[in-house]
Specification:
Helix content: 25-40%
Number of helices: 8
Largest sheet: 5 strands, mixed
Structural class: alpha+beta
Order of helices and strands: HHHHHHEHEEEEEEEEEHE
Number of strands: 11
Shape: globular
Length: about 290
């Protein structure tokens, strides 16, 4: 019975559980965009580069999510009105919306997340904006990696594109990263010729000294802080000679990775004046999402 009690009945003026769920479903339905026209976009892109392939794959996955959400909220509204029966899946969706959680059937079609429903919808809308900009204006100069369903595929595509351009062997190429002094995407004036800038990375277990461009111990009472814009450049592995850096794992969420290694996206090179073991003991890592 506790599970069925409205969690915000006072602020909602004492409306019933069904009315509250219907209100949330309607608000979500109003935010859902039309699916992307993949055939038109494929023609518009012209030459299909490795990163264009990633975009088309991302859009296909995003379309599946949009379609599922549209069917879910429309059918749920009909079930609440008594027009169709309430299936087990619809009941699970209703409970999730009521409790401010992401329905399992939606979660399975989206990137890993620990967000509440409200924050996840805002994340969903920002993902749509980045995809739309990518289609209309070309590949972003600064990529919001958290907005991609499979972010590691984009990084792999960057290496593939540079290897094709320069005639490098793919298996002997890697990524080099460096933290810039830019704190906002708007500070970046032009796109890199190879590689990209990345925004929206969050540092846990330490802090970033902007002035000296290196890792420092965490600030008091600050558990997570946003890293400045990261520059990612494909490079031949034998040319990469790094000193005084900590190879920092980048995870999708603060849960980091499971026993199968799922959750690790890539490793970023962060400058440091301390030995790497110091940051390992501090549990320093980067996240794509500040849950």
């Amino acid at each position: 019975m506790i599970e069925l009690q409205p969690q915000s009945s006072g602020s909602e003026g004492g409306i019933s559980r069904e009315q509250y769920i219907e209100k949330v479903a309607t608000e979500i339905e109003e935010k859902l965009p039309a699916v992307f026209e993949l055939d038109r976009i494929r023609r518009q892109l012209g030459e299909i580069t490795p990163t264009a392939v990633v975009l088309l794959q991302e859009l296909e996955r995003f379309n599946n999510l949009i379609s599922k959400m549209k069917i879910s909220v429309a059918t749920l509204q009909r079930a609440l009105a008594g027009e169709v029966g309430m299936s087990a899946e619809l009941d699970e969706i209703a409970k999730a919306l009521f409790n401010g959680q992401i329905p399992g059937s939606w979660r399975r079609l989206a990137p890993d997340t620990l967000k509440s429903l409200g924050n996840w919808i805002a994340h969903f809308e920002r993902r749509f904006e980045q995809y739309s900009t990518w289609i209309d204006k070309g590949e972003p100069a600064v990529m919001w990696l958290s907005g991609l369903h499979i972010p590691e595929s984009y990084l792999t595509a960057l290496v593939q594109a540079t290897c094709r351009k320069n005639g490098w062997p793919l298996d002997k190429s890697t990524l080099y990263t460096t933290v810039t002094h830019h704190t906002k995407a708007g500070d970046v004036r032009e796109k890199l010729h190879s590689g990209c800038y990345i925004e929206g990375l969050y540092l846990e277990g330490g802090s970033w000294d902007v002035e000296n461009a290196c890792l420092r111990k965490s600030k008091p009472k600050v558990l997570v802080e946003e890293l400045p814009i990261l520059k990612v450049i494909p490079i031949e592995a034998h040319r990469l000679k790094l000193q005084n850096t900590f190879k920092t794992p980048v995870y999708t969420t603060s849960e980091r990775r499971n026993a199968m290694g799922v959750g690790l996206v890539f490793e970023a090179d962060l400058s440091t004046t301390e030995h790497s073991s110091h940051w390992v003991l501090q549990g320093v890592a980067l996240m794509l999402n500040a849950d």
